[in-house]
Amino acid sequence: MEELGAPVRRIWQEVLVLAVVGIEVVLLVLTATSPGEWWRAGLAALLAGALMFRHRHWPWLLPLVLALNSLSWSLAILIIVTYAYATRSSSRLRTFLVSVLAVASGAVPVAALQGPAISTTGTVMGLVLTVLVVAAAAATGMYTSTRRMLLAQLHKRAEQAETGQAAAEEQARRAERTRIAREMHDIVAHKISLVALQAGALEVNSDLERAQVEQSAALIRQTATTALSELREVLGVLRSDGEEAPLMPQPTWEDVRRLVETSKDAGITVDLFDFIDDPVPDPLARTAYRVVQEGLTNIHKHALHTKARVALIGEPGTELIIEVSNVLPKGFTTDLPGARMGLSGIETRVAHAGGTITSGPTDDGRFEVRAVIPWPTTT
């Protein structure tokens, strides 16, 4: 696995290295006046070939090329090797040591080529020039390495941010699908259970008078029409291209009371104990509506012939207590399927509102759903 910000091998760079060293070798050959200069040109060409392997073996290959370059004294190889090592090494100490080696490899030819006729000043100037060339190559390499690593880190952060954004969007989509599925369950389960109860009453009581049949049929039609209308509004959210639309219907506190009356019309024996005198905020009313709705839906499905009750207790600044209970049925069965997500859905709603909910049999032989939700004081 490549290190973050490591140089990438490109063909044009390899061609450029060979071209630069090749031009220097050609100039050495054209100006050669002795076999030694021919030998230097050949060694420079071999070192240029060795540079083609610098991407994989640079930690030991580049210092070795620098050492051998003291015999050929190729200025191009001196600059390329110093730059290549500085742009790859993450250790500034090793880069400094290699730069010292580069100065030494350049100083040896300078001292060897200067004859007695050349003054000490000329030798010093040659060494200073070598130091400046090496320092410039090393500094450029370190700058390139730092810039490349910074860009790689920025690119990596951008990819992580994009991945995180995609994950957040997917999580939001899943949450929205769950929210819509919960709304659809609340609507379909409750309304269709009412329709099933009303239709079942017509099927069992075949000796009903015409007026009673018409009343039951009208109630079935009204319930089914309401369910279809509410379901259409929920599905409309899926086709919305704008911002998140509120899911409909949005019940109020009066709808909570109306739920009990609707269940009574469907043939359920249910009593309402309403001890609420203060206006209930709409968010709290919506949560209460779903709790009562789910409790009554389960009674419709599993405890049709038992007595039920709904108790609503609370006041602002304390808590809203919702109790939906029924006598445990004996031997009653139902053909209505269970979605197994109703109680889970209202548990999520109540928890989101900061409350708690419990459900299960009680000591007095009833099945009870009890929710306790904070009721903030309105200002």
What can you see in these coordinates?
The chain is α+β, with helices and mostly antiparallel strands and 379 residues long. It folds into two domains: 11-162, no CATH class; 174-238 and 249-374, Heat Shock Protein 90. The chain has helices spanning 11-30, 35-50, 54-72, 75-86, 92-113, 120-204, 210-238, 253-265, 282-302, 342-352, and strands at 269-274, 307-314, 319-327, 356-361, 366-374. A five-stranded mixed β-sheet has the order 1-2-3-5-4, with helices on one face. β1 (269-274), α9 (282-302) and β2 form a beta-alpha-beta unit. α5 runs antiparallel to α6 (120-204) and α8 runs parallel beside α9 (282-302). The longest helix has 85 residues, at 120-204. The radius of gyration is 43 Å and the shape is rod-shaped. The protein starts with 10 loop residues before the first helix and ends in a 5-residue tail after the last strand. Mean pLDDT is 78; it is low at 332-340.
Average pLDDT over all residues: 78
Number of strands: 5
Going by CATH, what is the homologous superfamily of the largest domain?
Histidine kinase-like ATPase, C-terminal domain
User: What structural class do helix, strand and pairing data support?
Assistant: alpha+beta
SS strand fraction: 5-15%
Number of helices: 10
- Total tally of structural domains: 2
Termini separation (Å)? Answer: 62 Å
Shape: rod-shaped
Radius of gyration: 43 Å
Query: What quaternary form is this?
Result: single chain
Series of H and E elements: HHHHHHHHEHEEHEE
Major sheet characteristics: 5 strands, mixed
Task: Please name the CATH architecture of the largest domain.
Answer: 2-Layer Sandwich
CATH class of the largest domain: Alpha Beta
Biggest β-sheet: strands ordered side by side in the sheet: 1-2-3-5-4
Question: Could you please say which CATH topology of the largest domain applies here?
Answer: Heat Shock Protein 90
Uncertain parts: 332-340
The helix content is 55-70%
